[in-house]
Design a protein that fits this description.
With about 300 residues, the chain is mainly alpha-helical. The chain starts with a helix and ends with a helix.
Length: about 300
């Protein structure tokens, strides 16, 4: 049976390759950072909770000390870029394979666990697209790894920010933050008010996402505070609607915060914008009405 262990191993091998290439170029901080990430992918389940915690602190230390740096003047020269039309085909292979693979794996649950089918199919799509690029574009053997390193070094530590923030959300939920937030919200909304609970849930998802930088980090807190006890248990709401559209409400917060650095700060840096927060300012006019629509959809669809 193919499980997520194979996907983690594949990702670990990739990051180990990035680390080795960085060390070969004497970029010690970058090499250490990607090497630690490779270790977490390859041996995270064997080093235990304490080992993973120390590893996460080491990643933070390398980033905070400024040792994870973008490629400088001495970076390897880039090859001549392929046309956008040429690159579109391999890029389209990945989502197409993920979609088809998820459907096929659902017909054969003995091959892939149903809950892991999408991620396994996505990894298969990446491998298939890579093979297509080798056959069609005929790059040098190490060129995909070298270009991957150039891109991820340009993004830097923000590449792992979603995973770190999602982990933080899980820690907050285990620490009982959701219960505390739920008690505070319960005092603010009228007793038994469905509309008040829906508004509190939608706004809470957006606001916590703005603070924590990631809707995946906000979700465990808000589902424990409002979603599960009030909307699902007390008002008998549809869990699928409440969870799915609640995440969309959280993504509205992503559009409005610099804490979502990989979405809002990194693009400004890559495009060399004069206004560091220009991306955030441009997105607010879209995010606010979209948040209102998502809250309305939760109220309309979740309790029919």
């Amino acid at each position: 049976m193919i499980t997520l262990a194979a996907v983690y191993a594949l990702a670990g091998i990739y990051f180990a390759g990035l680390s080795g290439l960085s060390l070969a170029r004497r970029r010690w901080g970058n090499g250490g950072f990607w090497g630690l990430l490779a270790l977490s992918m390859l041996a995270g389940d064997r080093i235990g909770d304490l080992g993973n915690g120390v590893l996460a602190l080491a990643l933070v230390a390398l980033a905070a000390l400024g040792l994870v740096r973008p490629p400088g003047q001495g970076a390897a020269p880039r090859p001549a870029p392929a046309s956008a039309r040429t690159l579109f085909v391999p890029a389209l292979v990945i989502p197409a394979t993920a979609l088809a693979g998820t459907a096929l794996f659902a017909l054969n649950p003995a091959l892939v666990p149903p809950k892991q089918a999408t991620l396994v199919a996505l990894a298969a799509g990446v491998l298939l697209a890579l093979a297509l690029c080798y056959l069609w574009l005929r790059p040098r053997a190490a060129e995909p790894l070298s270009e991957g390193l150039r891109l991820i070094d340009t993004i830097g530590w923000a590449a792992v920010l979603p995973q770190m923030l999602a982990s933080l959300g899980a820690v907050f939920a285990l620490a009982g933050v959701g219960q505390v937030v739920g008690d505070l919200i319960g005092q603010a909304i009228p007793p038994g008010s469905l509309l008040g609970a829906v508004i509190a849930y939608g706004l809470g998802m957006a606001l916590f996402t703005m603070v924590m930088g990631n809707a995946f980090a906000a979700f465990p807190v808000m589902i424990a505070a409002v979603g599960a006890p009030l909307l699902i248990t007390r008002h008998h709401g549809d869990p699928a609607v409440i969870c799915a559209i609640g995440m969309l409400a959280g993504f509205c917060g992503t559009l409005m915060t610099p804490m979502a650095a990989n979405f809002n700060i990194v693009p400004a840096a890559l495009l060399d914008l004069k206004d560091r927060y220009g991306v955030v300012r441009a997105q607010v006019a879209t995010a606010l009405p979209l948040l209102a629509v998502n809250i309305a959809l939760i109220y309309w669809l979740g309790f029919r």
